[in-house]
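Re-running the complex after MR caught last week's input typo. The corrected sequence lines follow. Everything else is unchanged.
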Amino acid sequence: MEDKNGFNRRNFLLASAGAGLMAMVPPGVRAGAWAAGSDAPEKKEVRIGFIPLTDCASVVMASVMKFDEKYGIKIIPSKEASWASVRDKLVNGELDAAHVLYGLIYGVHLGIGGPKKDMANLMTINNNGQGISLATQLKDKGVTDGPSLKKLVAASSAGTYTFAQTFPTGTHAMWLYYWLAANDINPMKDVKSIVVPPPQMIANVRVGAMHGFCVGEPWNQRGIVDKVSFSVASSQDVWTDHPEKIVGTTADWVAKNPNTARAVVAAVLEASRWIDASPQNRSKTAEVIAAKSYVNTDVEVIRGRMIGQYEDGLGKSWSDKNHMKFFNDGAVNYPYLSDGMWFLTQHKRWGLLATDPDYLKVAKEINRIDIYKQAAAAAGVALPKSDMRSHKLIDGTVWDGKDPKKYAAGFKVRA
Amino acid sequence: MRMLRVLVIDELEARAGEICAGLALAGHQVAALLPTAADLTRRVEEIGPDVILIQTDAPSRDTLEHLAVINAAAPRPVVMFARRGDGPVMRKAFKAGVSAYVVDGLRRERLKPLIEVAIARFEEHQALKCERDDATQKLAERKTIDRAKGVLMKARGMDEEQAYAALRKLAMDRGQTLGRAAADVVEMAKVLL
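Corrected-run output:
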């Protein structure tokens, strides 16, 4: 069958094979793709919400570069003002899918602090590229890193210092808490924690609403350029190649639109591959997303850290090979079960979950590996050997997804 | 109907004025009117409203989410949809548990249902708070009773059962609750022992 874009299954598979990458996809997956019925997308127009951040790039570029047309859909990026609004619009169907915080989708699935609805993670959008910054005023008190921050916090009464993140169950809360705890500062007891939306972070630190914050780029770099804050850690320092944003939607939406879901993943995978293909492409991407309708800030503020040029605002600059990654030969995008479970272990650690969930079951419900594998086959993207991956985090602890309950209970600093 | 102290967060002054007028007509107090403000956490703590009304597209919503997650006693924000004011969206939002109500155009007479939702939210949250206070109090009471039993066991050589019986008799004789009597015993012990 053929849709109006002249796209059919045979051409599609041939095109992928032509890319020379189909060989990397296990034959079983190739055969499994499009096994039954029509493969035409149920919806031609797909509204995908995003928040103004560098890592919305692959969703935006899938639309701007028309990778979506190749798969018979039209992605309409929809700029959103808050994560709570993204969540509500996913839950009530105003958005089809969204560029969204990994932990948020898990939080909604379990009903942490808000509505409970079965959710779906179609793919990981990016690794790395978030950061932890401190207000310039702390530098005057001799604070330039974790240990000196610990000294300052320990010398004051609990709650004297305030730290901001972007959503209670989100990724930035978890990177901030993890980093503070690795420096022996208890984020629940020693300091105060508040939420500030990413685009408002710099304005808030300028008026002294908090002493430090964790947010996605370009806002850490913006703070350095505006001389209101400096960098003490990047999220890749906390966990190199950590999962960050995902393409999230509801389980209902995937059930109703499985072909559309597959087309969205394939289109965003192609955009991800294109962005990571060369420094020129990254640079072009920075130019596109800097526009008012997307991130709305200076190109240079986005571009530097996107290609790994880091400075800390204290005089040090370096090249970071673990900068924000969108593709990395497909290693970024696979919805690893261990990645999903990690957020649950941290929700448990910090008291957002009162009891241990069935970690593996929840991750298997949310992470739609089935859809991802079909889309990866269509886009000619290699698959990893395992649903789990293993990393050593900043505090020396290894996370491999094997015993989440024990891992969650094993942290000394906790709620 | 009780009077609510309402915090309105809206960056559009004219629209906010309409909401405030509607709230006043319905007999409620507007505790404060804030634009999408910096330092919202501190302001909410200072003002201590019963209900917060906020525009669905306001970035500050995430700040209020956090307050609700970390503090069960914080008011749950009531969200206003100014656009897309159609019934199905509203019903879906309700069913999904989104704290939302559709007000198309925010005309004053349309504020009534909004306020009703606000009251329902407030009552739900008061019930939660009472439940929590109740649980906290019961726990504290049990601790006091244990301490009073300890005093009696030590000072009068009673076993635990006898100490409990003595406390219960004391409470009945004086027409007090067990917790109150236990607290008196503990207080007296401080002076006498």
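None of the earlier attempt is carried over here. Residues 93-98, 100-104 of chain B have pLDDT under 50 and may be disordered. Chain B touches chain A at residues 36, 38-39, 41-42, 56-66, 68-70, 79, 84, 89, 92-93, 96-98, 100 (CB under 8 Å).
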